[in-house]
Structures are given as structure tokens and as C-alpha cells.
Amino acid sequence: MGIKNERLRWQLASGVLRAFHLERLASRYSRRTVMAGFNLVNGGLSIALVSFIALITQEAFIFPSLGATAFILFYVPMAQPASPRNTLCGHLIGALMGLLALYLFGLQDAPSAFVSSVDLPRVGAAAVSLGLTSCLMVLLKVAHPPAGATALIVSLGLMPNPSQLPILMAGVLVLLVHAFLMNRLSGIPYPLWSSDAAGPALSLSPERP
């Protein structure tokens, strides 16, 4: 599985180089260097795009767990957790469970844990939000690890308003559109919705240089 993922990552990086007539870079530098550069450019570009939308609209389109999502989308694009289905559903579950935990512990109007001190209700909200998110992602077969961070972002009070949920999901969608375009441009058959890759887990095994 590790070798297969390595080949896909190389296909993704080299395919984009060919699309922009930069094939000489693939022959001049090692595979690891080319793939690292690919992730540097696309990871940064995808987050810059979402951040720019947040700047223009002054809405919370950008949030920390999108960084982990961006890495997965460009590093293991054909893994199930990187599919649009898992990415969208995972973040939605995480946000909803975070909101549910806030209401369960009466924290919907409380300042965030980063402004005030962490108390027992906040500990309970964080634990419940992550536990429920993990449970539901497994039951519904939509595992997406960064969604656990989304659950904590909401339950710790960084995005406590239900009206922020559509904006949060719009940020995820922008990231997915960018990943779809770049992956398809490189020749990777990135899915429109669900990946056919077997197994729910990411394979991030060490690769040869």
C-alpha cells in the first residue's frame, strides 16, 4: 500500500509539472524533492485561496483543521479519507458534534477556552465532541482525521455560532474544488464523491528517497 501511494504521489506531482511544461524539474531533482515542492505550492496555494476569501468577506472561511485536510488531499488523494464524501461529511459531523457538546454543557454563550480558563464543562464538551465525532465517522464510514480537530475547534468555543456552520463547510468545499482541479490536471482520477480505494485508514508509511 505504501508503494502504491508513493507512485500516486509521484504521478500527481509529475503530472502537474507536465501540464505546465516543467518536466525538466522532474529529471533534475529527486522524486522526494519534487513531491515536497508540489505539496509546498499546492498546500500553500489552497490555504491562501481560502484565507483570501475570508479576508474579502470577513467571515471565518479559514480554520485550523483545514491545514491537515489540505495535506491529506495532496499527499494521499486516492485514500478514502481524502475523498469529497469523507472530507465533507467528516467536517460536518465534527462541527455538529462540537455544537451539540456546547449546548449539552451550557457553553453556547461562554467565551472560548482560549480567552477564559478551561473548566470542567469545557473539558466535558471537548471530550464528548471528539468522542461522538470519532464514533459517527466510523459508523458511517466517513473517516477524515482532521474532522476531529474541527470538533474541538467548535467545542472549545472558537466557532460557537450555528450560523458559522455554512461558512465552515464552504471553506471545506473551496479546498476540495482546488484539490479536484489539481489532481485531475495531473491525471489522477480523483473522485467526484467517493473513493474506491480499499480500507478506511491513511497509509503514511515511510517512502524511499
From TrEMBL:
Top-rank lineage group of the source organism: Bacteria
Transmembrane segments: 34-54, 60-76, 88-105, 125-144, 165-182
Keywords noted in UniProt: Membrane, Transmembrane, Transmembrane helix
This protein's record includes keyword Repressor: no
All copies of domain HPP transmembrane region, residue ranges: 38-191
Entry protein name: HPP family protein
Organism the protein comes from: Marinobacter xiaoshiensis
